[in-house]
Specification:
heterodimer, A: alpha+beta, Rossmann fold, Dna Ligase, domain 1, D-amino Acid Aminotransferase, Chain A, domain 1, B: mainly beta, 2 domains, eight-stranded antiparallel beta barrel, four-stranded antiparallel sheet, 0% helix, elongated
Chain lengths: 520, 171
């Protein structure tokens, strides 16, 4: 009697169907993991995403509302309802949207669904940037000097100015609920303080529904170093080799890599054990990332914790061969971590990720939504493309503009950079502008190649730059003119062939066009 | 056939004629090239410049987001071109700083105006931020394409705009 009973319990607790509460490349990434593990997947989509790639690749798909995220991807009841309707028993939140929303994790639990991530309690504790600072302090990890809590909504100007003076300039205004560079402003001098607070509050209010902000001292020439970790439900926490994400535009990461050129094996062990201490103090399970600022002198400060899978997780996967999404799922169904901590901390080679955005780098990175007419992702040795779009899909204006992540692996950093350059040249996204030309330019910069940069490097470089990132030389312009002319010639002559119907004299082009027409 | 191709503010003349060997004689501003050109798919062109055995270029010529604009992609770079003056307006935001006469600031993408930073009659410097449009979760500062004065202002905070909408005109 006893054995079948145990077997039954085992079967019941394993997530057998996963609803992916996200869209774009991360939804595709999770659906891929589901397929690899033999787990059925359910996609959700808004009006404008009916023809999106994640919908087409999932086993089932549920429409959850109009295009604005607040009415679809952020609507908790709609997503829970979709899970119930399809019989999904677990939810993977991806990143962004509801991924760090404790209310969502709680709603999943209340509905009897497994949330593939940390507990709502851990999200609440670490999702508040000020709460997370307290945890870090308790864990004995240094934090960046700053105000210990957010300003009240009715805090007086005098109060804010005084608090800022105590923190010291330059400082950073940060949204308590922030992420991805939104609701964040650097203030160099007292004169700009109140304006920056107003902007940060307004941006945070519209992005996160919470406009609370606080202040933090800005470390001069900081590097952004972060530690990926996995924690299981049995108390084991494993930190991984660091990622460096110092290449940022307006506080938004655009290039990430692992390992960091600025971190020695000794420093790696120190930062990793600090990260693990924070996670253990927080009672953290599943995948998470602890972010640090690394000062020039090798001292590091706890910045914040991301209680979810990160955009840049593939670089860690590339240098450790650990599939983090597989492990998220295995941890959520109660398995014990059996990764060798030494393997997790020892990078094999070097990996770089470029976030390909639908933005025009030559127009101050203005969004460039629109129809994707052609797509040829890079491939070949050492290349991984985590894409979220397909040909014929219209990149909508409603969401983040990232359409793919291109990852290059090499046995050394120079090899990874060279490989990334090769892959960027191959990558074709037709119909919209993307940041590919910008990355090609960046991969050629001496500071990037030498590792001589910090989180302010890119913004400083961009303000002083007016030329196109495509840096066309006379020969490139000549070639483009010839191509545009030939394209026009071909189109005119195909049209002419159509007009003449069956009349064809000696033109292979026309003959084949005619054959196609007859076949139709 | 002769085409006028505008690239990076320069107008190039491209004359094309098919030769008996199936290649193309392309005269670019008076310079003669023999080009072996193969159509690949809808937008692709494989070009062997100066004939078979010449340099190989994989080029994609794709319609852009605004009417008449072509995106020419080659080796990871993208240039914008127009053929025979088929552009949407003379006053687009990318017609270059320092241009003469009136220039409009157009919405480059659909979105919502969150802030207007200038008023009619204001003097503005080239690249001075004039309007902030929110799209794709980010606030995007649109800048003046030239130094001048704000002649027309067509939006207020809260206005939803489509791509190509004239937000303001600088004279």
């Amino acid at each position: 009697m006893r054995e079948p009973y145990l077997l039954l319990q085992f079967t019941v607790t394993i997530p057998m169907k996963i609803l992916v509460a996200n869209r774009g490349e991360i939804a595709v990434r999770v659906i891929r993991a589901c397929r690899e593990m033999g787990i059925p997947s359910v996609a959700v989509y808004s009006d404008c995403d009916r023809d999106a790639r994640h919908v087409r690749e999932a086993d089932q798909a549920v429409h959850i509302g109009p295009s604005p995220a607040a009415q679809s991807y952020l609507r908790i009841e709609g997503i829970i309802e979709a899970a119930k309707r399809t019989g999904a028993d677990a939810i993977h939140p991806g990143y962004g949207f509801l991924a760090e929303n404790a209310g969502f994790a709680r709603a999943c639990r209340d509905a009897g669904l497994t949330f593939i991530g940390p507990t709502p309690e851990a999200i609440t504790r670490m999702g508040s940037k000020t709460g997370a600072r307290d945890v870090a302090i308790k864990a004995g990890v240094p934090v960046v000097p700053g105000t210990d809590k957010a300003f009240d909504a009715d805090a007086s100007d005098e109060e804010i100015v005084a608090a800022a003076a105590a923190v010291g300039y330059p400082l950073v205004v940060k949204a308590v609920a922030g992420g991805g560079g939104k609701g964040m402003r650097t203030v160099e001098a007292p004169a700009d303080l109140l304006g920056a607070i107003a902007t940060a509050r307004s941006e945070a209010g519209s992005a996160f529904g919470d406009s609370a902000v606080y202040l933090e001292r800005r470390i001069v020439k900081p590097r952004h170093i972060e530690i990926q970790l996995l924690g299981d439900q049995h108390g084991t926490v494993i930190p991984f080799v660091e990622r460096e994400c110092s290449i940022q535009r307006r506080h938004q990461k655009v290039v990430e890599e692992s390992p960091s050129i600025a971190v020695s094996p000794e420093l790696r062990r120190k930062i990793a054990s600090a990260a693990a201490a924070v996670a253990k103090t927080a009672g953290y399970s599943n995948a998470g990332t602890i972010e640090f600022l690394l000062d020039e002198d090798g001292s590091f400060y706890f910045l914040e914790m991301n209680t979810r899978l990160q955009v840049e997780h593939p670089v860690t996967e590339m240098v450790t061969s650990v599939d983090l999404v597989h492990w998220q799922i295995r941890i959520a169904r109660g398995e014990k971590l059996d990764i060798d901590p030494e393997v997790a901390l020892t990078p094999h080679g070097h990996a770089i990720e470029c976030r390909i955005y639908a933005e025009d780098p030559d127009m101050s990175f203005m969004p460039s939504p629109g129809l994707i007419r052609g797509l040829r992702p890079a491939a070949g040795p050492g290349i991984r493309d985590d894409g979220g779009v397909g040909v014929g899909y219209t990149v909508p204006v409603f969401y983040d503009s990232m359409i793919a992540k291109l990852v290059a692996w090499g046995s050394s950093r120079p090899e990874a950079i060279a490989r990334m350059g090769r892959a960027l040249r191959e990558y074709q996204v037709l119909g919209i502008k993307t940041t590919i030309p910008f990355f090609l330019w960046l991969m050629r910069q001496p500071e990037y190649n030498n590792g001589d940069y910090d989180t302010t490097y890119l913004d400083r470089l961009l303000t002083s730059r007016a030329q196109s990132f495509s840096e066309p030389e006379a020969a490139d312009e000549d070639l483009a003119a010839i191509a545009a002319g030939l394209d026009a010639w071909f189109r005119a002559n195909v049209a002419a062939a159509g007009d003449q119907g069956a009349v064809n004299r000696g033109s292979m082009w026309k003959q084949s066009a005619r054959r196609e027409a007859l076949r139709g | 056939m002769t085409f006028e191709v505008d690239i990076n503010g320069r107008t190039r003349t491209v004359a094309i004629e098919k030769t008996s060997d199936g290649h193309y004689r392309v005269v670019l501003d008076g310079e003669v090239h023999s080009v072996d050109a193969a159509r690949v798919g809808v937008y692709g062109l494989s070009l062997l410049i100066d004939g078979e055995g010449g340099t190989s270029h994989d080029v994609q010529v794709t319609p852009g987001a605004t009417g008449g604009e072509l995106l020419i992609t080659h080796g990871g770079r993208t240039l914008t071109a127009t053929v025979n003056g088929r552009r949407t307006g003379r006053r687009g935001p990318d017609t270059g700083a320092g241009a003469h006469g009136e220039q409009a600031v157009l919405a480059p993408m659909p979105g919502r105006v969150v802030r207007v930073l200038v008023a009619v009659g204001d003097d503005v410097a080239v690249r001075q931020p004039v309007v902030v449009v929110e799209a794709m979760k980010m606030e995007n500062e649109l800048r003046s394409p030239k130094a001048g004065r704000v002649k027309e202002l067509n939006v207020t905070p809260g206005t939803s705009v489509d791509a190509g909408r004239v937000l303001l005109v600088i004279e």
